[in-house]
From TrEMBL:
<feature type="transmembrane region" description="Helical">
    <location>
        <begin position="191"/>
        <end position="212"/>
    </location>
</feature>
<feature type="transmembrane region" description="Helical">
    <location>
        <begin position="87"/>
        <end position="106"/>
    </location>
</feature>
<protein>
    <recommendedName>
        <fullName>DUF998 domain-containing protein</fullName>
    </recommendedName>
</protein>
<feature type="transmembrane region" description="Helical">
    <location>
        <begin position="160"/>
        <end position="179"/>
    </location>
</feature>
<feature type="transmembrane region" description="Helical">
    <location>
        <begin position="136"/>
        <end position="154"/>
    </location>
</feature>
<dbReference type="InterPro" id="IPR009339">
    <property type="entry name" value="DUF998"/>
</dbReference>
<keyword id="KW-0472">Membrane</keyword>
<feature type="transmembrane region" description="Helical">
    <location>
        <begin position="12"/>
        <end position="38"/>
    </location>
</feature>
<feature type="transmembrane region" description="Helical">
    <location>
        <begin position="59"/>
        <end position="81"/>
    </location>
</feature>
<keyword id="KW-0812">Transmembrane</keyword>
<keyword id="KW-1133">Transmembrane helix</keyword>
<dbReference type="Pfam" id="PF06197">
    <property type="entry name" value="DUF998"/>
</dbReference>
Amino acid sequence: MPLPRRTASRTARAVTAVLWLGAAGAWLFVVTFLVDGVTRPGYRPVRHAVSALALGPRGWLQTTNFILCGAAVTAGAVGFAATGGSVLLAVLIGVFGVALVASGVFPMDAMRGYPPGAPEGTPEETSWRHRRHDEAGAVVFFSLPVTAVVAAFVLDGVVWPTYSALTGAVMLVATLAFGQAWENDHPRTGLVQRAAIVVGWLWLGLLFAHAAR
């Protein structure tokens, strides 16, 4: 039996609200780490990973950024499923969101000169929190390009499938490049990671906005 008109209208508004919440979470995540990175004493955005912002006196800001963005994206995934879109796509977005939350709950270890005073290299032994952070990060950086590729097959039209396929390809290449740069402690590791994040998070926010409209 169909929902009463008033109830259906409220449900539609609630779904739209959580979709816009997901979009805002994705975009504000990028704005926050970009601004924080260029204003943080001792932090070098070109070299240091975004996760390193969760360390030091201002570390709470990036920790909060991880958790709030992840929660907003997860809520947006629920809203996406409620629109009648692909359940698989919604589940993949939700996995990405939960992994972001985990990235905030389990911070990386201090290393590579940040926070100031930390060893310049990578420790031979890392904490269990760092290992959980690495695992969550792997899910984050591989689930999103997979999500974009799936979107290329399930979304209607020409523009969104094409945009999604390009996003998946570019982010996968950037993610692999970031992994190699991280292993070699390349001086532009942070820059490569930021390229992957900006491409992927921008696409995700626009996907939520598209679904909301």
